[in-house]
Design a protein that fits this description.
Blueprint (H helix, E strand, L loop, with lengths): L5 E11 L2 E7 L12 H11 L21 E7 L7 E8 L6 E2 L5 H13 L11 E10 L4 E10 L2 E2 L17 E6 L20 E5 L3 E10 L1 E7 L11 H4 L3 H18 L16 E7 L3 E2 L5 E2 L6 E7 L2 E2 L5 H11 L5 H5 L7 E6 L2 E12 L2 E11 L1 E12 L1 H4 L5
Parallel strand pairs: 2-3, 4-6, 12-13, 16-18
Antiparallel strand pairs: 1-2, 1-21, 3-4, 4-5, 6-7, 7-8, 7-9, 9-20, 10-11, 11-12, 13-16, 14-15, 16-17, 18-19, 19-20
Helix pairs in contact: 2-5
């Protein structure tokens, strides 16, 4: 019996921040996968190695964690004032679906470097030495990201001495600006606080009534107090991810938060929307030992934050969640702001499982509504491998649409 051959597709495997993903130029994908739909999803699932009932993604490019099960599609932008369109997909490890409902802030750091190196930025914009400002249209949430990418001898500078907790080796710094970060994705409507409140009482069956700050900034996020759910905010992955009851509690909080935020119409829809919203818990600054063994001092941070991604505690902090943290911290009265000591602030340094991170945001209250024009943070990015990925031809041709 004749079997379908493998096909090869030009791709680049990149680290951005504390995440990794497979990057594609839109025009390099097979024509049937250049548009949204079942064929595109089937192709990308096969590239990553999902769904994998073993949870390892051994037969694909995924790394068996939410931070390493990601795909990015880029194209030259036709939108005025933008250089590149950026579409992000969070690939489920053990289920046959890709969540396109939100951005990845970490991989945002790799978009500018990829665009420069792959001909998506006009050559006359690239200096021999200096910084290229890349204007990115984030297609998932309809927002602009500005990346400041260093260039040496006409090429992207990837090596350097910028250190990022959660990444083993130093690299060149990529500064990111998330403009008007209140999310415009489906259900969010561009409203920073969809319930109209800085703090709500969230009634979660089986858990109880919790104070919650539900915010759309960077990515929709549900913040709760660590102490209200029996934690301190200094926990590491092993403290959370091995306990099925604890993970079920967080998923219940996330699902009921999504419902209150208007992101889903009923609780059952949460299972098909795993990427958003995120759920995070916050606590006052405290001493703890990071996953690397590094000692984090309460004196060097404003608060501690832990966040879950795709049902598991993240090993560091998602970039988009960092934007949500910085934004919420800048607005007096939110749970994040209270944990950081209250008052007005334009930046915050928080402790996460791998260490610390500083993020800035400027909040303005106008006519009783809070807005944030820009959130700022630094990441790094690096090409890990480039060339082609290979998948069986029938992996995406035999879909319900074909």
């Amino acid at each position: 019996m004749t079997k379908a051959p493998q096909i090869k597709i030009a791709a680049t495997y990149m680290r951005g921040g504390t995440s990794k993903g497979v990057f594609f130029r839109l025009n390099d994908l097979p024509e049937v996968a250049q548009v949204p739909g079942a064929a595109r999803d089937a192709l990308l699932l096969r590239v990553i190695g999902s769904p994998d009932p073993y949870g390892k993604q051994t037969d694909g490019m995924g790394g068996a964690t939410s931070s390493t099960s990601k795909v990015v599609i880029l194209s030259k932008s036709e939108r005025a004032g933008h250089d590149v369109d950026y579409l992000f997909g969070q690939v489920s490890i053990d289920q046959p679906f890709i969540d396109w409902s939100g951005n990845c802030g970490n991989l945002s750091a790799a978009v500018g470097p990829f665009a420069i190196s792959n001909g998506l930025i006009d050559a006359d914009r690239i200096p021999e030495n200096g910084v290229v400002t890349v204007f990115i249209w984030q297609a998932n949430i309809g927002k602009t990201i500005v990346a400041h990418v260093p260039v040496t001898n006409g090429e992207v500078q990837e090596t350097g001495d910028f250190e990022l907790d959660g990444v083993t080796f130093p690299a060149a710094e990529v500064r990111l600006e998330f403009l008007d970060p209140a999310a415009d994705e489906e259900g969010a409507g561009g409203t920073m606080f969809p319930t109209g409140n800085l703090v709500d009482e969230l009634d979660v069956p089986g858990v109880g009534k919790l104070q919650a700050t539900m915010i759309n900034a960077g990515i929709p996020t549900v913040f709760v107090n660590a102490r209200d759910i029996g934690f301190t905010g200094t926990e590491l992955q092993d403290d959370i991810n091995g306990n099925a009851d604890t993970l079920a509690m967080f998923e219940a909080i996330r699902a009921h938060g999504a419902l209150r935020m208007g992101l889903i119409a009923n609780i059952e829809e949460a299972a098909r929307r795993q990427h958003t919203p995120k759920v995070a818990f916050v606590g006052e600054a405290a001493d703890y030992t990071a996953s690397s063994g590094k000692q984090v001092s309460a004196d060097g941070i404003d608060l501690v934050v832990r966040a879950l991604s795709m049902g598991k505690l993240h090993h560091a902090m998602m970039g988009t969640a960092a934007v949500a943290i910085g934004t919420a911290a800048a607005i007096p009265g939110t749970l994040v702001n209270r944990a950081a000591g209250g008052g007005e602030r334009e930046s915050v340094t928080f402790g996460h499982p791998s260490g610390t991170l500083r993020v800035g945001a400027q909040a303005i209250e106008e006519a009783g509504q809070w807005t944030v024009k820009k959130a700022l943070m630094s990441r790094s990015a690096r090409v890990l491998m480039e060339g082609y990925v290979r998948i069986p031809a029938d992996a995406f041709l035999k879909t319900p649409e074909n």
